[in-house]
Amino acid sequence: MMLPTLRRAGELEPSIPGLLVCAILLLIGGWLGAPVLIGLFASLAFGSTAFATLTALGGSSPLIYTLFALALIVVTLCRKSFARDIGTVLGTHRSAWIVMGLVLYTFGSAIILPRLFIGQTTAFVIYRGSILELPLQPTNGNITQAAYFAVGALTYFVFSMALLRRDGLRVVTLGFFVYVGLNALLGALDLAGKLVGLGDILIGIRTANYALLTEISEGGFWRIVGGHPEASSFAIFTISGLAFCFAYWRASGSRLALALGATCLMLVMLSTSSTGYGAIALLGAVFAIGSLRSMLRGRILARDLAIAACVPIFLGLVATIYVVHPKAVEPVINLVDSTLIKKAESQSAQERAYWNARSLSALGDTMGLGIGLGSSRASSWIIAVISQLGVVGTLLMIALLAALLKGPGPGQPTAPGDESLALFKGARACAFAFLIGASLSGGAADPGVLFFICLAVVVSLRRSFNARLARPAARPRNESVYPLPRTAG
After folding, report:
1. Can you list the pairs that 297-304 forms with residues at least 24 positions away whose Cβ atoms lie under 8 Å?
2. Residue partners of 158: CB distance under 8 A and separation at least 6
3. Does the structure show a pLDDT above 70 at 389?
4. For residue 286, what pLDDT is reported?
5. DSSP secondary structure letter of residue 217
6. Contact status, residue 172 vs residue 244, Cβ threshold 8 Å
7. In angstroms, rounded to a whole number, what is the distance separating the alpha carbons of residues 433 and 5?
8. Given a cut of 60, is residue 1 above it in pLDDT?
9. How far apart are CA 100 and CA 157, in angstroms?
10. In the chain, what percentage of residues exceed pLDDT 70?
11. Which residues 6+ apart lie within 8 Å of 356 measured at CB?
């Protein structure tokens, strides 16, 4: 079976609701002082809103974040300081060269590998709303996924340059809070509409050409999807927001971060998403290990002790309710049973396990080169990276992960509540949590624009910390607030 190939180039059907959402987000961003950059952050909450449909690419519908990302790239290119800023980034960020190499490799893999290994293995592709296992062949997904990956990579450079400016820290920090808050707001609106019997009240802005699973219940509870096409996607983005707020609060004591983090946690728990529950369990284990290490080193935070004290109180409260009124917790038990215990035995879980197994076998069929970005679909970001990008692409991705997870270094600020350190830890936790969620149920190899934004923030701030350690206390008037050292890293 042959899939439809490219048709008349240039066919584009604009989405009026999608463009209206873009206009509103631009106004919000303008009110906050950075229309395009903050608009990009805000657009990440609209995971089912497209600004157009590209019929020339088989009905692909780019989400509105791509419009903001492209606009931000153009604005950055038009700055007078562009040449100096990009030179600074390339001269001080080893990660920048890895990102460039990975983009070139992914483009090459998307074009060459499906043709080189055509028919020699199978791939899972979306065709007319269904996922089919077909012999490997070039698809529209090779083009669209490579384009999305390139947009994300370019965003890395844009944010690296944005943090060279004096207002970079403030604007980027504000952008993260706008993203988390708007994503939570859409989730709350979605749940409220279903609880009062109005159904999916956000259906008017769901203009992307996706399969929408927005009005489904699980164990007697409505699934929360917010501005996304399904509950698992909403859970992944909400988990990333939760991780950002939690890490930011631990580092700064911000009450806003604490309130938003608590809201995100509640929404994930109510979302009925097994991806969300699994991600919370994994992140909780990471936090417990980190807290134990700090305790062994004699550096336990009072905020960690407060969280540790809340756990037995919460468990005791649940146990008391169960003893006094057992029927009150029956819906919760049924929900856990349907989303976690029986999930592994479901047909959907077995189907996804088969996708992953066949994707891994494709790596062997292609002698470790992979089948090319966008050629297939898996049920885990990790599996998708390995099967599509092969050994070389996987190693490059591991290098970026190492740059993301590396600590702030000896030059980190020591002042309590330092904003730059809080943003560093928040962005790192945000990207890490996002990838955990994507590894549980993500189907694409592209880590997403949010990952590249967080990577740029982490690498840029780490360099600024090291520069503060190496430079004298006095700073020339014309120097950037976040000076970068000359040593590459």
Report:
1. 301/250, 303/249, 303/250, 303/253, 304/250
2. 69, 72, 73, 76, 456
3. yes
4. 86
5. E
6. no
7. 36
8. no
9. 10
10. 83
11. 378, 379, 380, 383
3-state secondary structure 240-278: HHHHHHHHHHHHHCCHHHHHHHHHHHHHHHHCCCHHHHH
231-252 helix and 255-270 helix, angle to the nearest 10 degrees:
150
Can you give the residue ranges of every domain in the chain? 82-470
Q: Tell me the one-letter amino acid at 47.
A: G
Residues whose CB falls within 8 Å of the CB of residue 358, separated by 6 or more in sequence, listed in order = 122, 124, 133
Closest among 132, 137, 109 to 121, alpha carbons compared: 137
Task: Tell me the chain's radius of gyration from C-alpha atoms.
Answer: 23
Biggest distance spanned by C-alpha atoms of the chain:
69
Inter-residue contact 166 to 480 (CB < 8 Å): yes
CA distances from 93 to 106, 125, 408, 465, 484 (A): 20, 36, 14, 14, 9
Structure tokens at 141: 């997904």
Q: Please state the length of the chain.
A: 489
Contact between 227 and 46 (Cβ < 8 Å):
yes
Q: Which of 29, 63, 76 is nearest to 456 (CA)?
A: 76
4 burial type by CB count under 10 A (0-12 exposed, 13-18 middle, 19+ buried): exposed
59: number of Cβ within 10 Å = 14
Contact 267, 184 (CB under 8 A): yes
Strand partners, 60: 54
The bridge status of strand 13-14 relative to strand 52-53 is antiparallel
pLDDT recorded at residue 317: 67
DSSP 326: G
- Burial of residue 219 (CB within 10 Å: 0-12, 13-18, 19+) is middle
Q: What is the pLDDT of residues 329-352, one digit of tens each?
A: 555 565 565 555 566 666 677 787
| Contact indicator for 275, 236 with CB cutoff of 8 Å | yes
Q: Tell me which H or E stretch contains 88.
A: helix 82-92
Contact 235, 276 (CB under 8 A): yes
Mean pLDDT of 194-212: 89
Containing 53, the helix (H) or strand (E) segment is strand 52-53
Show the tokens assigned to 485: 């050292």
Output the six-digit token pair for 47.
């995971």
Decide if 101 contacts 133 (C-beta within 8 A): no
Residue 337 is given by DSSP the state: I
Kindly report the number of other CB atoms within 10 A of residue 137's CB atom.
18
List, in sequence order, every residue forming a beta bridge with 123; answer none if it has no partner: 134
What letter does residue 55 receive in the DSSP assignment?
G
Residue 218 contacts residue 335 (beta carbons within 8 Å): yes
Kindly report, residue by residue over 48-81, the tens digit of the pLDDT.
Answer: 999 988 776 666 788 999 999 999 999 999 999 9
Q: How many CB atoms lie within 10 A of CB 10?
A: 7
Backbone angles phi, psi at 111, to 5 degrees: -90, -45
- Alpha carbon distances (Å) from 485 to 67, 89, 169, 467, 482: 33, 10, 18, 5, 10
